[in-house]
TrEMBL record:
Keyword S-adenosyl-L-methionine: yes
Pfam families: TrmO_C (PF18389), TrmO_N (PF01980)
Keywords (A to Z) from UniProt: S-adenosyl-L-methionine
Transmembrane segments: none
NCBIfam families from the UniProt entry: tRNA_TsaA
Superkingdom in the source lineage: Bacteria
Protein name: TsaA-like domain-containing protein
Family indicated by similarity: Belongs to the tRNA methyltransferase O family.
């Protein structure tokens, strides 16, 4: 069985830390799925404009192939403390490291970089190889009576996110016209509390960093509220 990538995702998540745990949680996260030849053909997408969402089948390419599969994993939903079978989870450490995400589809574009599909609500690391695209069909794919085991719907509680004066100045320089929705992206990512589930074992830790696009986002968590301290471009390597 040969599986060939049909495209590569270009997303704001340039580091695994900070990626939401499920698609659709961060609506400001827009991405571009750049199609590879010989699949970069507009006729291959004829009719897709009628579908608001698509399934993206992808490969967990960062670390997982080298790490191999694990029969049991510790899902973030259980705080990283309890084990479940890998096939009862969406963990990346699988015999075949394949994932699936249902994301909003914003249309096909063709520009100087080639043919691409615009996506929103993405939860994929930048550089993720995609192996297939399928339309999301609500009458068949949405099963409201299905049970979800330990993966119950999260509470609506989100962290309150504030921006320091320094962070606001950094935003004005980084995204002056707001075209990249950088402020919304930072706020929505941090509101989900991207810290690993085991971090409550270290209540003394307050300062964290998250990488989005090419920026290092520094933030502090105190009394259930998050303050963005700075949004910095990394120093160029010598």
């Amino acid at each position: 069985m040969n599986v060939e990538p049909i495209g590569i995702v270009r997303s704001p998540y340039t580091d695994k830390f900070g990626i939401p745990r499920q698609p659709g949680l961060v609506t400001a996260a827009e991405a571009r799925l750049e199609l590879l030849p010989p699949f970069a053909r507009p006729e291959a997408f004829k009719g897709i404009e009628g579908f608001s969402h698509v399934w993206i089948l992808f490969v967990f390419h960062a670390d997982c192939p080298e790490a191999g599969w694990r029969p049991t994993v510790r899902p973030p939903r259980l705080g990283g403390r309890a084990s479940v079978g890998v096939f009862a989870s969406r963990a990346p450490y699988r015999p075949n490291p394949i994932g699936i995400s249902a994301v909003e589809h914003l249309g096909l574009i063709e520009d100087e970089r080639g043919l691409a599909l615009r996506l929103r609500g993405i939860d994929l690391l930048d550089g993720t190889p995609v192996i297939d695209i399928k339309p999301y069909v609500p009458y068949a794919d949405a099963l409201p009576r299905a049970s979800s085991g330990f993966a119950v719907a999260p509470h609506n509680r989100q962290l309150t996110v504030h921006f320091s004066e320094q962070a606001l100045e950094d935003l004005a320089r980084a995204d002056p016209g707001g075209d990249r929705q950088l402020r919304d992206l930072v706020a929505q990512v941090l509101a989900q509390d991207p810290r690993p589930g085991y971090m409550d074992r270290y209540p003394e830790r307050r300062d964290f960093g998250t990488r989005l696009h090419e920026f290092n986002v520094r933030w502090r968590l105190e009394d259930g509220e998050t303050t963005v301290i700075a949004i910095e471009r990394p120093a160029p390597e010598p």
